[in-house]
């Protein structure tokens, strides 16, 4: 199956993820969790590509579903860290996000 992105997919991607209210994350625990989830994402990609020396056992569609699930785990953990920064350290993430977008535009990465 060939993946051919449509032009409108490059505009923006909005992801809304919840605040996890049954946790008491710290900056450190959340950073470690991001690393753990990123490792699981890398492992899913590596297994599909045979980078661990194993034969590819999954069909592409199933492998990409696993990759997508791991990516969402990374995103959820990053959002959790955003809540930690806002709630525990008073960081204004709206300002940070706007500065980030301006930086990307200045570098020519987006319009």
Would you mind describing this structure in some detail?
With 111 residues, this protein is mostly helical. The chain has one domain. The chain is 60% helix and 0% strand. The chain is built from three helices and no strands. Helix 1 (27-49) runs antiparallel to helix 2. It starts with 26 loop residues before the first helix and ends in a 5-residue tail after the last helix. The mean pLDDT is 87.
A few lines on this structure:
The chain is 60% helix and 0% strand.
> Per the principal axes of the C-alpha atoms, what is the gross shape?
globular
What do the pLDDT scores average to?
A: 87
Radius of gyration: 17 Å
Helices, by number, come to 3
Helix content: 55-70%
Largest sheet: none
- Strand share of the residues? under 5%
**Strand pairing plus helix content: what structural class?**
mainly alpha
How many strands appear in the DSSP assignment? 0
| Helix/strand order | HHH
Summary keywords:
111 residues; mainly alpha; 0% strand
Question: Helices, strands, pairings?
Answer:
Elements lengths: L26 H23 L10 H30 L3 H14 L5
Helix pairs in contact: 1-2
GO molecular function: hydrolase activity
Pfam family, one: MazG
Keywords: Hydrolase
């Amino acid at each position: 199956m060939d993946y051919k992105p449509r032009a409108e997919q490059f505009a923006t991607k909005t992801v809304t993820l919840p605040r996890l209210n049954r946790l008491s994350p710290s900056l450190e625990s959340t950073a470690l969790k991001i690393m753990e989830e990123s490792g699981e994402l890398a492992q899913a990609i590596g297994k599909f590509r045979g980078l661990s020396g194993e034969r590819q056992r999954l069909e592409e569609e199933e492998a990409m579903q696993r990759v997508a699930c791991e990516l969402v785990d990374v995103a959820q953990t990053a959002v959790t860290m955003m809540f930690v920064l806002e709630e525990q350290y008073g960081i204004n993430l709206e300002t940070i996000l706007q500065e980030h977008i301006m930086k990307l535009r200045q570098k020519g990465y987006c319009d």
